[in-house]
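Q: For a teaching session next week I want to show students how multiple molecules come together into a single three-dimensional assembly. I've collected the sequence lines for a complex. Could you give me the predicted structure tokens for the whole thing so I can convert them for display?
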Amino acid sequence: MKINNVILQAVTKIVVFIILTLAVYLFLSGHNNPGGGFIGGLVLATAFVLLFIVFDIETIQKALPFDFKKVAALGAFLAVATGFGSLLFDAPFLSQSFGYFDLPFFGKTELATVTIFEAGVALAVVGVVVTIILSISEDV
Amino acid sequence: MNNIIVLPMVIPVLIGIILIFLGPYTKAQRWISLGVMVANAGISIYILNRIQTEGILRLDFGGWTPPFGILFVADSFSMILVLTTSIVTSVCLIYSFFSIGKAHETMFFYSFVNFLVAGVNGSFLTGDLFNLYVCFEIMLLASYVLIALGGRKVQLKESIKYVAINVLSSWFFLVAIAYLYGTVGTLNMAHLSERIAEAGQTPLLTVISILFLTVFGLKSGLLLYFWLPGSYSAPPTAVAALFGALLTKVGIYAMFRVFTLLFYHETSITHTIIGVLAGLTLIGGSIGALAYKDIRQIVSYNVVIAVGFILVGLAVATPEAIEGSIYYLMHDMIVKALLFLLAGTMIYLTGTANIDYMSGLIRNYPLLGWMFFIVMMSLAGIPPLSGFIGKVLVGQGAADAGSYILLALAFISSIFVLYSLLRVFLSCFWGETIISVEDEVPLKKGMLVPCVLLTLVTIGLGLGAESLAPYVSDAANTLLNPDVYIDAVLND
Amino acid sequence: METLIIILSGVLVSVATYLILSRSLIRVILGTAILSHAAHLLIMTMGGLKDGSVPLLGEEASSYTDALPQALILTSIVISFAVTALFLVLAYRTYTEVGTDNLHALRGFKDE
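A: Of course. Below is the structure for the complete assembly, covering every listed component.
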């Protein structure tokens, strides 16, 4: 069954980018303000889910050839691996640290290892949510 | 730095994730997961020995000191259980190599076994009540998947009930945690213990403790075992063995921890209730073990009886009884895994689970028969097998404390265990051989080897109980003196 | 305010109980989802609904709210999200395999 919903598709093409921007904003603001990997990941996932609903699954899977189970696993791996990273520096498991660096373009920027952890969380959330939606909707 | 105590939980998590990427390479998955379990066993032995010299170890995650951060605490009791878990899981993994089938292996079976073990080890090691909830959930999520993996009708049916009942008990857990946090204002176990001791265990706290008792009763099958026989009969043998060996024991561990560390002031209420529940569990389990002809049901009810028996030790709470419970806990994890493996092998060989349709197996498969005999003896508590020392110590404790009813129930239940298994033994292994030589299903070596390994462990545990004595008495000592635990966590 | 939220939580629990006791599988799942929300509300209320600032470093307020219940709830929301999702998938598989979502038809385990 293929519904050709022109208006929804046209709007989605733009809205998806707004959602993605919001997701990135939420993800980055999570360091000192409300937001973070989980919420950012959820918003990111809604963008994908919207795409899957508006266009059909095959089209989107051609455009986004990820196995979302693997994405979830990669995210979880990143999150746990940052915990392991602290073992290398002889700090307690899951220790995080941060520092200030002078980067070109950005000027003085705070970089924190917790961002990697949060990225892992975000990826895991995206992977899990999309996997669930796909596994329920695929064989209807 | 004690980073090593987080490894028994984190290595399985990490490896479980990596195995997802190794999807089609089942050989690699097998050996990696087996390697993880063996490594875990090694690590836990190392930590166990370190605890004997350095006392209880703790690790504050991210450097956040207690009572603010989450932490892992390794004492002898938890490390003994982690060690046993690693051993049992390795053996069940070997069994699954030869029995689980390609379909399971490519559907991330080994990943989920790793996650299950991570949840179990995390529950044993954590020093924070909410973290305990999280680890429980990790374990349960993995078990939901493992029970349904394969997707046979009976598995799906049972998994629905299993998930529903566990969601409900998790809800009770959350509510209990909420009440406790509202009353005492902390969730760190050592800090909780200190504050409860300061404030005295008010009636409100006792009610909360009974809420915890309900939760762990549901998880461990203490009287609330109605879900257990069905769920443990559905999954494949290797998974059922893991469940039978590990899942209820985590509930028992949590109960020991909570009722020796936190709520130990009103023993006349809480421990009496535990005693009554344990007694009823023994009776109900014994009736169940005799009532069924399905070997999986019989074995599952034997799990229930063991839960009752171990908690008699907690209800009595004398040093001997606690030591006995710890011995029996180790013994039971190993022997129940073996029992499930043997029963599963018998079902595989005969194609039926009804004991009326099996007969004379000992002529076809002598080794299997004799191993079943040894398990039976071990469960009944015949020396020198591993069940003996636990039974004697729990019995001695119960006699010292004057709880003669529990003592009688505990030992009568042993007779019922013996009878229920003897019935299986007589009906399945003795009698006329009905399988002719040409119909005989060849017994795979890979199924026999794990059983032999576990049989050796149960004999070894019985003979070598002496060498374990210092660890077990240290574990019992920590359980009975909460100050040791509190000092190690808060004041150093 | 606390009393009100506690009552709300109680209402949610009774709704969930009603749903869980019904025969339809999907209602049971909805019931478990609502049940966990009731628990989350309870945790939040037990932590105390204080009037304080957001517990962030930059706020410089005189009093802060307790952040721990929020952290607990977030964790527990994630878990209940995962469990509910898994439960839904499981129910769907069961429905296609067994052909019914009536829990009475799912009783027993003898038939293979």
